[in-house]
Amino acid sequence: MYDMCVLLGMCEFNMSFGSRHCQAFMTFLCLVLAYSMRVNLSVGIVAMTDSKGSNPDFMVLPWSTTRQGIILSSFFWGYLITQIPAGHMARKFGPKYLLFGAMLVCSVFTLLSPFIAENCSWMYFCLTRVVQGLAQGFFFPCVNTHMAKWAPPPERSRIFSFVFGGTQLGTVVTLFVAGYLAAGPWGWPSIFYSTGLCGVLWAVAWLFLGANSPDTHPSISDSEREYIKAALVSSSDQSSTMRTPWRDIVTSVPLWALLIAHLGQNWGFWMLLTMLPNYLSHVLGFNIKSNGLFSSIPYMVMWSLTIVFSWIADYINEKRLLPLNVSRKMWNTIAHWGGAAALVALSLISTSVTGAVVLLTVSVALNAGVYTGFLTNHLDLSPNFAGLLMGITNGMANVTSILSPMITGFIVSDQVCKLCYRQIMLQLGHKKFQRYRDFCYTREKFTRILVSLNLNVGVIFRSK
To answer: Which of 359, 417, 395, 406 is nearest to 133 (CA)?
Structure first.
């Protein structure tokens, strides 16, 4: 039955743009804008605190390096809190209106950020970032819940990687454009105004185009609806009424393995993303325009590799060239161990600007493997509770997202000190090498380990 569905789906639907592709595109744009509003401060704070005056017509804020580290990490204080409740609420009530509300709140506070920065204490500015973090805590769990209802297994790696590739495109566009906006006639406030306005426009469009599942979509064709539902044999239409098996989730070995991988991932990813513009500006000597351009290059390459890796991963899984757990581990090892090797090499380079940019690009770009590695594994383990599982691991892993920029800010007390940044690179590379990589359990392993899982395993997990 499953193989027949795959064949029919490949023949009938892959040649045309269907409703599931529209839903994927909208959630892709959601994450593009989410990350635009998340990383706008990484370049913005360089212009906001530039005493040399990248744009002398706008206020320069007297924030120390340590204070900047606290401000950059404050987003994750709120982001940590709402992850698990968001996953639970998305399953109970559906992700559509939760995504709308989260995007609207985040966008409004982004629009208010310049006024608060210029007229209030830095602590109030931190508070706006906390509120934005609270709102954005809904995005990953809700998008994961949404994809569990819309992404058929034969297309899962491609759809998942495309949607979450929005995080990289949002990073690329924002880092690239923000430098030019900061140096332009509207100054650094325009970074926040442009990203916030785009978020409001997406929220309005989502109200008309978004749908929780194929059953609630007003214009999906009957043939596409049946194809999706027949292919999603592991997902139940009654998932919103299922009791949440908290005890079994907490004692799940595969989930703890995912959490360990997620902790290490967030430490490295957010250290690089929040501190890279400072490194390029103060150590490598790029001006604000070049800073934005060179900060965006690693994430542009990463976004491209995400698409390439996802197609290769789906081909491997479709042809069964490797077991699913081996495939997930392979991509994760490429992402983490490859990136770690590049960072260790970067710490040894003292004079070559070109070498530093190339190694930073390699380290970040190889991280594309996580989308076909551990991040997709939440959907493998339990489609009905995928949003909740993502909320648990992503929420708890954001402890390292908070600590990473703060610790970096304390270590890099002198922003032009190469030795300080070298210590950070060596520390990060070592952590990546030590990361536990054997985390990806297939649904079959999960079923054997949690035989007593009170989720109606016969419905939730596809049996061979």
So the answer is: 395
**Is residue 305 a contact partner of residue 368, using CB atoms and an 8 Å limit?**
yes
Residues with Cβ within 8 Å of 421's Cβ and at least 6 positions away in sequence, in order, are 279, 283, 412
Tell me how far apart the alpha carbons of residues 19 and 216 are, in angstroms, rounded to a whole number. Answer: 12
CA distances for 180 relative to 15, 47, 114, 173, 278, angstroms? 40, 11, 17, 11, 16
Q: Whole-angstrom Cα distance, residue 99 to residue 89?
A: 11
Q: Which residues of 285-316 are buried (b: 16+ CB within 10 A; e: fewer)?
A: ebebbebbbbbbbbbbbbbbbbbebbeebbeb
Joined together, the tokens standing for residue 92 give: 């109970």
- How many C-alpha atoms does 445 have within 13 Å on its Cβ side? 17
For the stretch 391-447, pLDDT in tens is 888 888 888 877 776 776 666 655 444 444 454 444 444 444 444 343 433 334 433
Task: Give yes or no for a contact between 178 and 292, defined as CB atoms under 8 angstroms apart.
Answer: yes
Q: What's the rounded Cα separation, in Å, for the pair 86 and 145?
A: 10
Element of type H or E holding 212? none
pLDDT per residue over 134-151, tens digit each? 999 999 999 988 988 888
The encoded tokens of residue 238 equal 């009654």
Compute the distance between CA of residue 156 and CA of residue 160 in angstroms, rounded to an integer. 6
DSSP for 109-142 reads HHHHHHHHHHHS-HHHHHHHHHHHHHHHTTHHHH
Give the global pTM.
0.72
352, 423 contact by CB (below 8 A): no
3-class DSSP state of 79:
helix
119, with CB counted inside 10 A (0-12, 13-18, 19+), is exposed
